[in-house]
Write a structure and sequence with these properties.
Glutaredoxin, Glutathione S-transferase Yfyf (Class Pi), Chain A, domain 2, four-stranded mixed β-sheet, 9 helices
């Protein structure tokens, strides 16, 4: 398997899960410019990471890659503890992070794609940051009394949450008082697989 990634992007979640499952893999680092280059556009016409190749098969979209990787290690609770309810819980939080939090970050990272006026871009980013505070508060509530989003062991949802929390800290999203998220972040930072992925990406 080969993971195409950009350091610190959402592909970091897939990178972490690759470390967790322990299967042989290689990586291909991309610059922002290379994302839109002809070589990578043949792999993913959207010009976005992550992309995962396995032989002559290519898989895109972070959620699909995360689930596919989890299924390569069924002995691990990366998709829950094996019950239908637990799997649904993991997918619920992956969906929440992908569809609500990640999408809202696009208004901060790429405000210029939505608006031409610089002042309006700043206003949009500020509004998005305020919304993110509310969204992260829901995750903080979910972590009350739990080590991880769907139980006592990390799942693919936790790898994704760790990545967007890194973004929140970098963009100074207000996470004041969200102590469960803070403890979660420290817990993930201490994880050997997380540390290996961070080191490999130079983060």
């Amino acid at each position: 398997m080969k993971l195409y990634y950009m350091p610190g992007a959402c592909s970091l979640a897939s990178h972490i899960v690759l470390e967790w499952i322990g299967k042989p893999y290689e990586t291909h680092k991309l610059s922002r410019e290379a994302l839109k280059g002809p070589e990578f556009l043949q792999i993913n016409p959207l010009g976005a990471v992550p992309a995962l190749t396995d032989g002559d098969w290519t898989l895109t979209q972070n959620v699909s890659i995360l689930e596919h990787l989890a299924e390569q290690a069924p002995q691990l609770p990366l998709l829950g503890d094996g019950t239908a309810r637990s799997r649904a819980e993991v997918r619920r939080w992956v969906g929440f992070i992908n569809s609500d939090i990640h999408k809202t970050f696009s208004m901060i990272f790429g405000a210029q794609r939505f608006l031409k006026d610089e002042g309006a871009q700043q206003e949009l980013a500020a509004s998005a940051s305020g919304l993110l505070t509310k969204l992260f508060a829901q995750l903080d509530a979910q972590l009350d009394g739990k080590s991880y989003l769907a139980g006592s062991a990390p799942s693919i949802a936790d790898a994704y949450l760790y990545v967007v929390l890194r973004w929140a800290r970098a963009k100074e999203v207000n996470l004041a008082g969200l102590d469960n998220l803070s403890a979660f972040f420290q817990r993930m930072e201490a994880d050997a697989g997380v540390q290996s992925a961070l080191k490999a990406e130079g983060l």
